[in-house]
Amino acid sequence: MAERMRVLYAIVTGASGAETVGELVALAQADGWEVCVVPSPNGTRFIDTEALAAQTGYPVRSTFKEPGTEDLLPPPDAVVVAPLTTNTLAKWAAGIGDTLPLALLVETTGAGLPVVAVPHARAAQLKFPAVVTALSNLAEWGVRFVHISEGDAVPWMTALKALDQ
Ligand SMILES: Cc1cc2nc3c(=O)[nH]c(=O)nc-3n(C[C@H](O)[C@H](O)[C@H](O)COP(=O)(O)O)c2cc1C
After folding, report:
1. 120 lines ligand 1 (CB under 6 A)
2. Ligand 1 site, residue 62, Cβ cutoff 6 A
3. For the sheet containing 33-39, what is the strand order?
4. Cβ partners under 8 Å of residue 74, min gap 6
5. pLDDT tens-digit map of 18-68
6. What's the CATH class of domain 6-60+73-162?
7. Among 20, 85, 123, 161, which residue carries the largest CB count within 10 Å?
8. Cβ 20 vs Cβ 49: under 8 Å
């Protein structure tokens, strides 16, 4: 029987840098991953969903499936969430799952899967106390953070490599 390939969920949220997620798809595919891109509803405004569906071979889902219908994506083995807004970051740490990416982040973190996150926000947003607490809690709960400075591009290769650490 053919071995099942590892599945990476590339979650993108509504921040600059999301438009380059195709670079992560290419890097991960070259590293032997099947990749599914899962944007937040706001994240869809930053990306070319048709191009990413063609590149990955999977539909680019940003909303929950209809009840009673089949899952369209294979289950994940690992997650990279980048760029990560402070909105999704704070809600994730609070266990809120009111978007598809949030529900997946809560579930995969709870399951102990490897999850790498690259917060992308202004320095002042990242200093907001609830955001500071969310970062600290999620790190304690096993999330691997790749921190960048305001204005930096998303370091896709570093994020991918952090899955192996
Ligand atoms: C052009 C643009 C760039 C944005 N960049 C960021 C960002 O870098 N970080 C951030 O936290 N929010 C950013 N936002 C705001 C988020 O899109 C907004 O908070 C949204 O509610 C996030 O929803 P999501 O977390 O479900 O994707 C940006 C908005 C726009 C229109």
Report:
1. yes
2. no
3. 33-39, 6-12, 78-84, 115-119, 144-145
4. 7, 34, 36
5. 999 999 999 999 999 999 999 999 999 999 999 999 999 999 999 999 999
6. alpha beta
7. 85
8. no
